[in-house]
Amino acid sequence: MAKKPVKTAAKSQPKAAKAVRVKAAAEDQSTNLYEGMIPVARLRDKDIYRHVVSVLVDNEAGVLARVIGLFAGRGYNIESLTVAEVDHERGLSRINIATSGTHQTIDQIKAQLGRLVPVHVVRDLTDDGPSVARELALVKVAGIGEKRVEALRIGDIFRANVVDSSTQSFVFEVVGNTDKVDAFIELMKPLGLVEVSRTGVAALARGAAGIEK
Amino acid sequence: MAEAQTAERGDSTEKFVGARIILKALEEQGVEVVFGYPGGAVLPIYDELFKQNRIRHVLVRHEQGAVHAAEGYARSTGKVGCVLVTSGPGATNAVTGLTDALMDSIPLVCLTGQVPTHLIGNDAFQEADTIGITRPCTKHNYLVRDVNQLAQTIHEAFYVARSGRPGPVVVDLPKDVCMAMGPYTTAPKGVQRKQHKTYRPKTKGDSAAIAHAVALMAAAKKPVFYTGGGVINAGPRASKLLRELVALTGFPITSTLMGLGAYPASGDAWLGMLGMHGTYEANLAMHDCDVMINIGARFDDRVTGNLKFFSPGSKKIHVDIDASSINKNVIVDIGIVGDGASVLEDMLAMWKARRYQADQKAIKAWWRQIEEWKARGCLGYEQKGKLIKPQYAIQRLFELTKHKKTYITTEVGQHQMWAAQFCRFEEPNRWLTSGGLGTMGYGLPAAVGVQMAHRDALVVDIAGEASIMMNIQELSTAVQYRLPVKVFIINNQYMGMVRQWQELLHGGRYSESYSEALPDFVKLAEAFGCVGMRVSDPKKVDDTIKEMIAIDRPVVCDVVVDQKENCFPMIPSGKAHNEMILGQDGKTGKPITGEGLALV
Ligand SMILES: Cc1cc2nc3c(=O)[nH]c(=O)nc-3n(C[C@H](O)[C@H](O)[C@H](O)COP(=O)(O)OP(=O)(O)OC[C@H]3O[C@@H](n4cnc5c(N)ncnc54)[C@H](O)[C@@H]3O)c2cc1C
Ligand SMILES: Cc1ncc(C[n+]2csc(CCOP(=O)(O)OP(=O)(O)O)c2C)c(N)n1
Ligand SMILES: [Mg+2]
User: Fold this and answer.
1) How confident is the model at residue B583 (pLDDT cuts 50, 70, 90)?
2) Residue B8 has pLDDT above 60, yes or no
3) How far is CA A25 from each of CA A22, A28, B262, rounded to the nearest angstrom?
4) What are the Cα distances from residue A43, in Å, to A76, B192, B328?
5) CA distance B126 to B128
6) pLDDT of B325 over the 50 cut
7) Residues B68, B442: contact at Cβ < 8 Å?
8) Is B63 a catalytic residue?
């Protein structure tokens, strides 16, 4: 019983020299052995990373529900999500998702998105090269006197526009990457921050190539 | 008629009523049988069904049964199963079946009726948000709002159901769309079909990755093949290639519950099933191996046990058509996205071209170790005394039917695991069980579906007395269509699997797991128009089975068995492969505590 399976067609063949070289390759699994290989060490990394993932989808009814349902159903984190039609002729929408997780989780998210039927492309704007990301926030600050002046001054530094003002309040429009918007809001807190409305992240890869490559 | 047929052949300007378009599309997709149940919203489709005789309709007795029957049909033929149900309750009743098919990767197209488009959202009579409800339990779903899209949507549904990782697809059909006039368009053919605008699953594995996988295999000293349902999904050719590769390498092979039959149980390299109720030798081989070759299995928790201790020393190769299966539960060294058959073919070709040879000395030593594990006889049981041991009943059933073209379906519970352990499958597609969802009530309707596809085969549902009550109504379907399915009830008067867990995890407090007030299954069978039989004497088991399989009608055989038998081996939840409980020494192990208690 134990002997039979090893008797194979290969038996009569000479032991190839290659088999030795093979061993060396097999032992060294830590490095990238071929293009596209995901190193185990990367997957074992338990640190959490923030990623922006862009998904080009058919702009059909329910497609957003599919994406959101996927995140909710599998317990993935959504920090922000934006969606809008970007190509009317072809009926394409772009969804940008800011999410965070371990490398393993992020890879899962991309694979799960990739197998949704109406999805054309999934692109990791954090991992697949440099990218630009922007979001817009409307920030309402109420106060008088010195605080009001200070809010205006900081708004200036952040190149925020005042889009509404009353004697006791401003609404600032601030645009930038998430960190900048976060920082602005943080600074407004002691100055009478009332409420914030944010668009979530819109992002594109740098350079000439589009998402469809 | 002749005129109509000419026009029907190609795309034309001719218009058809929506319901007719649906049937034409089904026909073009090769549908022979539809499992369904009528209702207001699908009356136009039923009217068209009435007018033709190319597609057979099987009237089930509950929509859940329709879906399981279609699963049985699909799994036993490799084709896409087809279901037709009405709106509202028809669709919601189908949900369990759809979820079952999603978990087990079974290709289905389920047509659901819907209220007319202008009433959608109005809480109309028998309206349910079928698309919303079925979104998480289907591979994809469609709401057809325009009769001009109808034919293409149905063609696409079949394409999606069968391509890549197979799964269930729902097409929701508002009644007005079924009654509107529109054109018929044929399905995209050839290259065109492959060029679906978004869904184009990768079937060819990356050759650099395959090369490294094969090199790793060639250098292995303690390898094991761990194969799964994906090999069945990949078609009979994949099973053939797998057998070749196993023979060529001489490596041992184990399989999940879902993959049984891909490699023959009589094969030299067969270790039996692995996992929670798998064999001692299969699980220890997994634990101790140095190279694991996973083909079409998804590292399910029933299989891996505690992930922290799962096969700690091995390099892992994983072949799967679904990229999301790779590195989901277990991090692997080499992930290969591709179809099982295609990758196996490439592996074989590479192994041969590079004249690889397994490390014979090491493999021999490995087999010696495995033989030692095998010698434990982990599936041993003793048939003594006046009570029928459930294992004995199943083993005899297998022995007395193995020479026939036999298909086995199961319900869920201990009987299911014993069936997996004691029925030894030689061919793929002969074993049908609810693995991922574990749906009690799966087996009988699935058997109906199998028998519809294989009229001359012996189809046996190995059932539990509790499970069978969940879709017992399908006996009527079997009778109506003269489907001689056999329901072989392993009647232990307990939800045995629940009782076993209560014994091992909850101090023997058998809360609500006794099958109280059971019907008399013999009389029940007779009331349905089936043949009823009962056996409780071990000496009469053989004769009863022989009699059962000789009857060319549906039979319910009530096998009264030992109530207290437990299913072993067992890896308790939260434990590792090398912490199995073996049953035959009468030891049931220590009570399970700690983390394991919270796991399912
Ligand atoms: C009570 C109970 C006890 C159980 N105990 C056990 C047990 O002891 N042992 C056990 O094994 N199971 C057991 N199960 C079943 C278990 O829950 C899982 O259903 C099963 O292990 C999954 O099998 P699988 O890994 O083969 O994956 P499947 O669910 O069959 O999935 C198939 C995999 O193959 C991939 N695939 C699909 N098509 C292809 C293709 N063409 N090419 C390549 N890949 C493809 C899919 O993407 C997927 O990853 C039990 C179930 C129940 C109800
Ligand atoms: C629909 C459904 N409900 C509940 C369960 C949980 N469950 C798993 S096995 C089992 C008991 C099955 O009893 P029986 O059919 O008699 O089989 P046995 O274990 O006794 O062989 C139950 C309740 C399930 N799997 N499916
Ligand atoms: Mg029982």
Assistant:
1) confident
2) no
3) 5, 5, 31
4) 17, 38, 10
5) 6
6) yes
7) yes
8) yes
Instruction: Based on DSSP, count helices (H) and strands (E) in chain B, helices before strands.
Output: 24, 20
Residues B406 and B397: their CA atoms lie apart, in Å, by 11
**A208 — contact with chain B (CB < 8 Å)?**
no
CA distance B483 to B450: 10
The confidence score (pLDDT) of residue B43 equals: 98
Quote the ligand 1 centre to B301 CA distance (angstroms).
10
| Residues contacting residue B361 through CB under 8 Å, at least 6 positions apart | none
Alpha-carbon distance of B348 to B356, in angstroms, equals 10
For residue B152, the model assigns a pLDDT of 97
User: Token pair for residue B572?
Assistant: 């308790």
Give B428-446 as a DSSP string: TTSEE---SS--TT-HHHH
Class of domain A132-204 as given by CATH: alpha beta
The pLDDT assigned to A37 comes to 87
> Bigger pLDDT: B272 or B3?
B272
CA B391 from chain center: how many Å? 22
Q: Give a three-class secondary structure readout of B320-357.
A: ECCHHHCCCCCCCCEEEECCHHHHHHHHHHHHHHCCCC
Q: Which amino acid is at B50?
A: F
Which of the four pLDDT bands, split at 50, 70 and 90, describes residue A8? Answer: very low
Give me the pLDDT at residue B362, please. Answer: 98
* pLDDT value for B425: 98
Distance CA(B506)–CA(B200), nearest Å, equals 49
- Rounded CA gap, B280 and B274, in Å? 8
A1 or B327, higher pLDDT: B327
Q: Where are the domains of chain A?
A: 40-127, 132-204
What would the pLDDT profile of B88-106 be if each residue is shown by its tens digit?
999 999 999 999 999 999 9
Omega cis (within 30) before B89: no
Q: Which residues of B touch A119 (CB under 8 A)?
A: 198
For chain B, the maximum distance between any two Cα atoms, rounded to a whole number of angstroms, is 76
User: For A50-75, what is the mean pLDDT?
Assistant: 96
If contacts are CB pairs under 8 Å, which of residues 33-62 in chain A contact chain B?
Answer: 33-38, 40, 43-44, 58, 61-62
Structure tokens at B335: 């992930």
In the predicted structure, residue A26 carries a pLDDT above the cut 60: no
Cα distance from B254 to chain A (closest Cα, Å)? 14
pTM for the whole structure:
0.94
Q: Which of B332, B355, B364 sits opposite A13 (nearest CB)?
A: B355
pLDDT band at B596 (very low <50, low <70, confident <90, very high): low
- Candidates 3.30.70.260, 3.30.930.10, 3.40.50.720, 3.30.70.100; CATH matching A40-127: 3.30.70.260
Task: Please name the helix (run of DSSP H) or strand (run of DSSP E) that holds residue B462, with its range, or none.
Answer: strand B458-464
- Looking at the predicted structure, is the pLDDT value of residue A25 above 60? no
Q: Which amino acid is at B185?
A: T
Beta sheet of B291-295, edge-to-edge order? B270-273, B253-255, B223-227, B291-295, B315-320, B334-337
User: What is the DSSP pairing of strand A92-101 with strand A131-142?
Assistant: unpaired
Provide the mean pLDDT of chain B: 95
